[in-house]
Amino acid sequence: STMFSGIEQGPxxxxxxxxxxxxxxxxxxxxxxxxxxxxxxxxxxxxxPVVRKTEISIAQNESINHEYLPxxxxxxxxxxxxxxxxxxxxxxxxxxxxxxxxxxxxTGALRLGAEFLAQKLSRRVxxxxxxxxxxxxxxxxxxxFTTAKTYRYWDPSSRGIDFAGxxxxxSQAPENAVxxxxxxxxxxxxxDPSQEQWKQIADLMEKKKLFPFFDSAYQGFASGDPxxxxxxxxxxxxxxxxxxxxxxxxxxxxxxxxxxxxLTIVQKDASTTAAVHSxxxxxVRAMYSNPxxxxxRIVSTVLNDPKLREEWMDCIKTMSSxxxxxxxxxxxxxxxxxxxxxxxxxxxxxxxxxxxGLNEAQVKRLISDFHIYLLxxxxxxMCGLNEKNVEYVxxxxxxxxx
Length: 402
Ligand code: PLP
Description:
Elements: H1 14-24, E1 31-32, H2 49-60, H3 75-86, H4 91-94, E2 98-104, H5 105-121, E3 125-130, H6 135-142, E4 147-152, E5 154-155, E6 160-161, H7 163-171, E7 178-182, H8 195-208, E8 211-216, H9 226-229, H10 231-238, E9 243-248, E10 260-266, H11 273-287, H12 294-303, H13 306-336, H14 344-348, E11 353-355, H15 360-370, E12 372-373, E13 379-381, H16 390-401
Parallel strand pairs: 1-12, 3-4, 3-7, 7-8, 8-9
Antiparallel strand pairs: 2-10, 5-6, 9-10, 11-13
Helix pairs in contact: 2-12, 3-12, 5-6, 5-11, 7-8, 8-10, 13-16, 15-16
Bound molecules: pyridoxal-5'-phosphate.
């Protein structure tokens, strides 16, 4: 007998199972619109040229060794990451009431923040948008949050934000509830609140004493401008909120597997910085002791060098504009085909994903009849589209909705 015989088979993770299914599909026309990774117009992964150049120079730099990093990460990295988020002129950084903790990409930053809130501040209630990135629930409950609540976000009829529903649900949240907010390029809907709507969300959260936990996985990748994509976070900081923001460098640097992330912590007052930092040190020490160095060295080298940083800015413009072009192409083709329904949302949505509004049965047919792989919710990764396959995809969508 084995002690493992009682272990139940866990459910597959949809996005990775779908990816595997697509990889195993031998149809030459197959299209992968599932997993959220950038692809070139040739359908290939892209190592940003500035990243390639920098990794070679790091590997060849004899003065760099493989000693442990500090528990909360390399200063050069956490400062660069927090500055990218909060801005060069951020008073919170200048006043030493904001700082960064290096993390295992965006997921690790969320987990670290959630662990702190649950263990050190006894927070138990969190809210996430309906729908949201599927991992929010697992990360927060895994960290010790016991009450998971949703706020309305997607309105299927308008294919946009259900803003009245969002405000109504957040207004019911108990004091101190942790509210997960997507900093930009909401995953999976591609719909962000307007600046006016962010102001209303901030008003409500201030009044109800709710804690904003931003998730920033797409800074710079969404619009091509990192400042624009950080607007909401900076606005909340300016208003005086204390908050957390999880940052991922997976998409905007194309460093998916290197697990480069940062948790930015903003407090009202610098007097709490040392104690809060020390508690993060203990949390990290118990979980994985020290963060990995390589990816974070690439990011800090690039962000801290004006010339390399310029080159990176060009790369994020290349990625974001290719996505915007594909949105327009897909929309134009569906229009030309006279595909039933409205499709304006495809060009209005922002970032990597589009919530197409296709239903589960239509998604099933796209997969089985056309070898086009997308999530059952109808979410597509726009980066999977290119000049060669966009017409095939548009015709397939047309076929399954008519
Ligand atoms: N948060 C959101 C909304 C995401 O879409 C992602 C990636 O898909 C992440 C966080 C974290 O990704 P990673 O852990 O790879 O940085």
